[in-house]
What we know:
The complex is a heterodimer. Chain A is of the alpha+beta class. Chain A is 20% helix and 32% strand. Chain B has one domain (9-123): CATH 2.40.50.100. Chain B is built from four helices and nine strands. At the A-B interface, helix 2 and helix 7 of A face helix 1, strand 4, strand 6 and strand 7 of B.
Amino acid sequence: MQANQSAAKTQSQPARTALYDLHVELGARLVSFAGFTMPLNYPAGILTEHHHTRSQASLFDVSHMGRFRIQGTDAMLALESVCPADLDALAPDRLRYSVLTNDAGGVIDDVIIRRAGSDFELIANAANRATDEQWLDERIGEQCRISVDEHFALLALQGPTAAQVLRDLNPGVDELVFMQAAHLPLAHIDCLVTRAGYTGEDGFEISVPIAAADKLARRLLADSTVQPAGLGARDSLRLEAGLSLHGQELGPTISPVEAGLGWTIAQTRRADGARAGGFPGSERILRELKQGPARRRRGLLPEGRAPVRAGTPLVDEHGTVIGHVSSGGHSPTLERPIGLGFIETQALDSNTPVFAEIRGRRVAIALTRPPFIPHRYQHSHS
Amino acid sequence: MAQLPEELRYSNTHTWTELQDDGTVKVGITDHAQQELGDIVFVELPEEDRSYASGDECAVVESVKSASDIYCPINGEIVAVNEDLKDSPEHINEDPYGGGWIFRLQPDDEAELNELLDAAGYEEFINS
Lengths: 382, 128
């Protein structure tokens, strides 16, 4: 058998985050991911880390994410010209999930946008840092100032006890609802705390100055309900939560409408909106909103226990290809295989039975609407 | 540290073999292999009564992250598979040399076992 972990090779030495020493100390299995040395899992293992996140709280190092600052009097309009969000309606320190679209109506990256005074901040996928920077510079570099911010580490504390853990450090966290940010000191360290995440659980992402990141992480891990978790659990958690991963559910040829992210196209940016269109690929995207896309993202429930992996073709009863699996794996919570995939709209409309071939065996796939596990976001003050 | 029982023979594709009293050979994956793979969530067992050549893909173990082929360590015919793994694939993580065995085969030639690595040889192989 092949027991080697095939880590993504980067040309230069992978970068270390501010928590590298802590990861080593905790016995993490480190892998190279998007140019960074990151923990895949800790000694507890992916399954245990996954369950712990759903039952208590896990600390993830997500410092590899990209962070851009967009500044200038025209920052808002500039940013609106590269994404379909209504940023005029975005209140200070509110977060908006959005997509940077390309001229073909595909997705260059999915990002979290925060309004920071008159500036905007973008949190982007680690693997797309360079692409995003180049794209933003090319499209809006003359209208605003774009800078890469590398002063912060980013920690994610996710799970049902996350709020209690942070409340012990600063009761101010209770003021935050899902997709809201505030500057709050935690353990006497100035942090930017956002109530957001990538697990489907209530939780927070904490921007902390690099020099204080290790101290804060250790303080959070000192809570009896908090355990460290790595990229492995992050992926299985996001899959259960039905959250898209760029490179799998999102990419340069997949439109946000196909990917089930039609809701990211703000009313004001739609065909009869006040600032209709005006983002790259808007022609295709607005047309698909109106007429429907040629394929759609669905949740996949394969029969039996064998996971169906990304890239597997989906076929009809005659073996004709009607789609593909974009993400697939084992759901630790449901104890069964789950997946996300794209299927031709025509096949969906006619309720065509869907199958995947796993090692020459045909497996029936039931379709569902993600998430597989209900989200537990804190939408209002408790 | 990975356990490597002295009495077993090992392949460089990370399986262990154990000659049984009845002349059949029990096969599983090594402790080192299960540690590398992490939590195993599914095992595709070989077909009983089917013959495999040494190096043939005969089973698959799937961890949370990925699927890995298991290669038959010697020529032979499958005489039994560990049905318990269908419901409890985690036995491979918990007890790789015991309850985590994957299949038993009737070797074409028992002498082939001598060509496999002993514990020291396998240890050297995984550390190289």
